[in-house]
Each structure stands twice: as C-alpha cells, then as structure tokens.
Design a protein that fits this description.
The complex is a heterodimer of chains A (211) and B (273). Chain A contains 5 helices and 9 strands, in the order αββαβββββαββαα. Chain A has helices at residues 2-16, 49-60, 126-129, 158-169, 200-210, and strands at residues 29-30, 34-41, 66-69, 75-76, 88-93, 101-107, 114-123, 141-142, 156-157. In chain A, the strands form 2 sheets. In chain A, strands 1, 2, 3, 4, 5, 6 and 7 form a 7-stranded mixed beta sheet that branches. The longest helix of chain A is centred in the N-terminal third of the chain and has 15 residues, at 2-16. Chain A is globular, with a radius of gyration of 17 Å. By secondary structure, chain B is an alpha+beta fold. Chain B has 2 domains: 31-132, no CATH class; 141-271, OB fold (Dihydrolipoamide Acetyltransferase, E2P) (Beta Barrel). A 5-stranded mixed β-barrel of chain B has the order 1-2-3-7-6. Chain B has a two-stranded antiparallel ribbon with strand order 4-5. In chain B, helix 2 packs parallel to helix 4 (82-102), helix 6 crosses helix 7 (134-140) and helix 7 crosses helix 9 (265-271). The longest helix of chain B is centred in the middle third of the chain and has 21 residues, at 82-102. Classes of the chains: A alpha/beta (211), B alpha+beta (273).
C-alpha cells in the first residue's frame, strides 16, 4: 500500500514537473494539479476573513490547475502542524513568534521545484488582538474593507501579508532581486504598505506553471 | 508555539480520521466567537508554558512586577465588549511575564532598578506586540555573539521540534557564556524530517557556509520551551533565535528572514553593555 502510494506520488510529481521559471523568484515547491481546501482557525479574527478570502482569490487567479477552495466555508478549532492535514491548507494562530506571518511547507526532497505535500500558514494573532488601537504608532495588523494608503497609518495590511503567504503556499520563495517596491514576494512588507497583487513576473511564473 | 512536526503516516491517518468530521464545514463564526477562541487558545498555551517555567515563586513575583508596570492595554478595533477587552489585557500581561521568564529573566533582574524593570517589561511587551527595537530584543537575548556559519546539519534529531542546526563559530562575544572558538547550534524549523521529506519555513533564509553573522539568541528559551525536562542536556550548545540572524557586512547588520530592522555593530555592542 505504502509502495503504491509512493509510486503514485512519484508519477504525479513527474506529471506535474515543469522547468522552474528563469527569473528573480525562486520556486522551491509546487502543488500537483487539483484543489486543496483552506481552513481558517476559529481564533483568527472573523473580521479578517473577507481579506483572507480576497488574498486566496488573487493567488487563484494566477494559474488554475491548482486551486485553493472553500476559504470561508471551512473553520476549525483544531491546530495542525504542516505535516498533519494534507487535504487542507490550515491558517491558524502562531502567536509568540517573531514573524507577523509564516508559511511552513511540508514537501518531498529533490531538486526545485519539489512537490509539496501540505502547508500551514501561521498568523501572529498577538499582533492584532493585542493592538493598542493607536493608528499613528502601532505596527500591528489591520484588516477590513476600507484600508487605504491614507488611513492605514503604520499598521501592517493583513490582506497584503496573507496574499504574500499564499504566494509561498503556491510555491514561490522571496524575490532575489533585492526589490523593495510593490511586488508581492519581496522579503519585506513595511508598515503602511499595501501590496495585494502580483507583479507581472510573479503572475507569469504562476500562470506558466499552473496554467 | 512549537509543535512536534513528525508523525508516522499511520498516526497522521488516524488523526485525520478522528478530526475530519468535526473540523471542517462548520460555517462562519462571529467576531465574539473568534475572540473567545483566541482567549481559550491563549489559556492553553499559557498553561502549557507555565509548566516549563521552573521556579513558580519567582514567576509570581515577575507577574506582579509586570502588573504594576501599567502597560497600555490591548484595544483592537473589532472588540467592543469591555469584558473581552479586560480578558485580553489579562492574557497580554501573563504573556509578558511568561516571555520574561522564558528568556531567563528573574524577579531579581527586574528589581535591580526602576529603569531596569521598566526596560525589561517594555522590551517583552514590544517583542510580543511587534515594533521592538534591536536594543529591546537584545535585552531578552542571553547569547549575543558575532560569528561565522560553519555548516548546516539536517541529520541530528533532538526531539525538540526543530529539523536542523546551523553551526555558528563564535568570533566575538557581546553577551553570554559562550567563548571565542565555541560552536553554537542554532536550531531551526526548516530541514529534513526523519521520513526523508522536508519542512521549509518562509521566514528562515538559508545561511551559506562562512557567512559572517550576528546572533541574538536564547539558551534559556531553548531549555524551557523547546527541550524542557532535561532534554536540553542532549545539546548543551543549542540555542534559538530571539530575532532572525543578521548578516554582518562591515559595520552594517543586515536582517534576514523578513525581520524589518537593520542595525549596526556599534549599536548592537552598545545595547549589550
């Protein structure tokens, strides 16, 4: 049974493998064709669900052979590590970490892009539930439907950060060209920045790979 | 929050079978329910942590000092209920006190002076909330060194939730017990699992052999949180990051892993005096 599964995994990996995009965005992982559900943990603010869904929709629009589904239909109170729930991408609380958000991908070993098996997105919810409410000073996360460059202050845009993490889920690493501008997969998202869409080369990578 | 990453395939399959029916397709939830879930999760995390703090009498004193510090209470815009805000404040203060203890700070350290007390409490609060300066992060680190990377080991399994060690040879000690020439093992989430597959964390940049680095790390947190109950004895040189390592480029310390703040060697040296 295990041998058959391993063989099937190898066949799927070969069937999906395609040359990595030759550009400034490494692609260490890919998910095979099909779809994967997304579960949001209850502890994440409900007020941010629409922004999370919008982030997933943005990434889904670039390459359709692998889609993330059910973003605001699946909720869970259970916490999963990246190795534990392969039918779903779990978005859950990762408070007490130094990052605002982090994605952990569980995947096969091998040359890039290697096949991903599962992924978990951790959100540092301390950075929103412990918000001081001080718009001018706070560097905490902010979400909602009316975030603009003029009212975001020094907050960090949830939707921008989540779209970036979903870019990781779909296999992209941080850009290596050192750009700090509007592109999604730059290493840094600064307070007050809104970066909710893919740059053309990022979209080209995903569309090229996922069709 | 660290979890054990490795499960056998059988264990994973059983776990999935038992939780799948209850964990999906449960429909939306209100913000009030989300806040309750956050607080319940916090209670669980804090309860687990409290069992790892060691000297509970000392922690009680740290807790009292934090409560007296009058930190700005949480006030998220989507929580309007006073009781929920009060509960968030209580959870936040416990987090600050636990953070100080996890990083090895005792009531005696905080009582050295009013300035020291305020500085440590503010540093822990900023570490949790974000926006801490490098100087504040350095206050929480018991190990601050300049060194160079001598390799990454993915073979050693220490059952501490980490999957690899980055070896850092110490060239200069700014704080801590390490000596020049010692090799510290920086434990990381990314790496190879016992099943041969890999974990990759988006906030852990690969570190090239020979790369000069500045490390703000904690042995105390490794001992108390990742490898408690004597597990840390298996690796006396293991540490974990307080913030992601900096790459040293002359006087400049360049952040990695998405950490937003660059600094300088002089500033770090001053912060560790």
């Amino acid at each position: 049974m295990i041998r058959k599964s391993a063989l099937l995994a190898c066949v799927l990996a070969l069937a999906n493998a395609a040359p990595a995009f030759a550009g400034p965005i490494p692609q260490p992982y890919y998910f095979p064709n099909g779809s994967r559900g997304v579960k949001i943990n209850y502890a994440l603010p409900a007020a941010c669900d629409a922004n999370t869904k919008a982030a997933v929709d943005t990434i889904n629009a670039a390459g359709r052979s692998f889609q993330l589904t059910g973003t605001t239909q699946n909720y869970t109170s259970t916490y999963y590590s990246a190795t534990e729930d392969p039918d779903f991408i779990n978005i859950q609380d990762g408070s007490s970490m130094s990052a605002i958000m982090r994605t952990i991908i569980y995947g096969y070993s091998g040359p890039a892009p290697a096949q991903a098996i599962d992924a978990t997105v951790y959100v540092n919810t301390d950075r929103i539930y412990y918000d001081t409410g001080d718009t001018a000073q706070s560097t905490d996360l902010i979400c909602g439907s009316s975030i603009t460059p003029s009212n975001i202050g020094q907050h960090i845009d949830w939707q921008s950060a989540m779209t970036h993490e979903m870019g990781h889920v779909k296999g992209m690493d941080h850009r290596t060209d050192g750009s700090t501008g509007p592109c999604l997969m730059t290493t840094y998202l600064n307070p007050g920045q809104i970066k909710r869409s893919l740059c053309s080369d990022e979209r080209a990578l995903l569309v090229g790979f996922y069709g | 929050m660290r979890t054990r990453f490795y499960r056998t395939m059988l264990g994973s399959a059983l776990l999935l079978c038992t939780v799948a029916a209850s964990a999906q397709d449960q429909g939306g939830r209100s913000q009030e329910e989300s806040t309750k879930a956050f607080l319940a999760h916090k209670r669980d995390v804090q309860q687990r942590r409290s069992g790892k703090l060691g000297d509970l009498a000392d922690f009680g004193q740290v807790n009292a000092i934090v409560k007296a510090a009058r930190l700005t209470p949480p006030s998220p815009r989507f929580v309007t209920d006073d009781a929920a805000r009060s509960a968030l404040n209580d959870a936040f203060l416990v987090d600050v006190a636990q953070t100080l203890s996890i990083y090895g700070l005792h009531a005696g350290d905080l009582r050295r002076s009013a300035e020291a007390s305020t500085a440590f409490v503010q540093a822990a609060a900023a570490h949790i909330r974000g926006g801490a300066t490098v100087g504040q992060e350095a206050l929480l680190a018991d190990t601050v060194v300049i060194g160079h990377v001598s390799g990454t080991d993915e073979a050693e399994q220490l059952d501490d939730g980490a999957s690899s060690s980055v070896s850092v040879v110490v060239d200069q000690v700014l704080r801590g017990k390490a000596k020049v020439g010692d090799t510290l093992k920086l434990r990381r989430t990314s790496g190879k699992l016992p099943d041969g597959r890999r974990l990759s964390a988006s906030d852990e940049d690969p570190l090239a052999n020979g790369a000069p680095v500045a490390l703000l790390a904690s042995r105390s947190r490794y001992e108390k949180e990742l490898a408690p109950q004597g597990g840390s004895a298996r690796c006396p040189s293991c540490v974990v990051e307080v913030v992601p390592v900096f790459l040293v480029n002359g006087q400049s310390l360049v952040p990695t892993g998405g950490y937003p703040t660059a600094t300088t060697l002089d500033a770090l040296t001053a912060a560790t005096k």
